[in-house]
Amino acid sequence: MKLKKIKKSFFLNILNIVLSKLEIIKLPIKGLIAYLTLINYNYVTNFVHEGNIKIILPKISLLSAFLNRKKILKRSFDYFSRPKAEVLLRKTIFNLYEQKYIDPKKSMIDIGCWIADNSLVWAKLLKDDAIVFAIDPSSENLSFGKNVALLNDVSNIKWVEAVCSDKPGIALTFDGPIDHAMFKSHEESSNSMISTTLDLIVNDKINSIGFMHIDVEGFEMKVLQGAVKIIEQSRPVIVFEQFISENDIGVIFDFLRQYEYDIYMINEVLPGCDMDCRNFIAFDSKREFPKIENVNQKNGREIGIFYASTGPQLIKVL
């Protein structure tokens, strides 16, 4: 078995070299590499930094892969690659659940859940009747997530096709594909969705949300404003992504401080994203600061962490 995997890995490396040299056949070869990689790992990806949670991915025929490469193969390969993405964030959240700083008996929100790479893994950390609210405006993203959840016998996820803002009933416009849409208000566009709020979505769980993960392409402030009841009544740990050279992040910091939160930047660069993209985490300032597992910076690259600066894993925003 090991010999077979080595041979396949060698073949994949050769294809990667060919890919870099022959631009004319770049896309077909990239697709072939993705397809062969999934087969090589038996359509299983291992979230090594989150308790070695293994996720089974849908099997794809060669014909399906190339007839509908972008929608089928790309989503599967993107999911397969996610354990190596945002490693310090993953380790931090898992560590908070391990020490029960985030209560596994409380539900969580994953808004902008995309292909549910976080939702499915985090759902496996929850206990009792706690659920994940997996929220995304793309029906295709949610359909993929539901399929993977079914394959892995994960049933504690509530899938919600929606866009959230500070108020319900607002027509929000967007340009480009819905998969990674950047929503705006009061602008003309042929594409639009009517908003809801996180407070309305969680409904009877509004007092029992332990964790919120917000990745909504620059719309984070509006989403938080529509989650005031959750913040006031549940006091969850909040993670949000920002482009620090583009978004007005000070507005979010001021908003969260108003509700007595301390904010920290997660000290890692996110490869594949814009260079100024960072994750931030906010803790209830009335609680004792959690014990964060120490990771030796000089070994960061070995596990896929590219630190943004020297210093602690969580850098307090002053």
Number of E-type strands: 13
Low-confidence stretches: none
CATH class of the largest domain: Alpha Beta
Number of domains: 2
Model description:
The chain starts with a helix and ends with a strand. Helices cover 36% and strands 20% of the residues. By secondary structure, the chain is of the alpha/beta class. Helix 1 (2-21) runs antiparallel to helix 2 (26-40) and helix 2 (26-40) packs across helix 4 (69-81). An eight-stranded mixed sheet has the order 5-4-3-9-10-12-11-13, with helices on both faces. A three-stranded antiparallel sheet has the order 7-6-8, with no helix packed on it. The chain is globular. The protein has two domains: 2-84, no CATH class; 87-316, Vaccinia Virus protein VP39 (Rossmann fold), CATH 3.40.50. A hairpin with a 6-residue loop joins strand 6 (171-175) and strand 7 (182-185). It has helices at 2-21, 26-40, 62-67, 69-81, 87-98, 117-123, 139-151, 198-202, 220-225, 228-234, 249-258, and strands at 44-47, 53-56, 107-111, 132-136, 157-161, 171-175, 182-185, 192-194, 209-214, 237-243, 261-266, 277-284, 314-316.
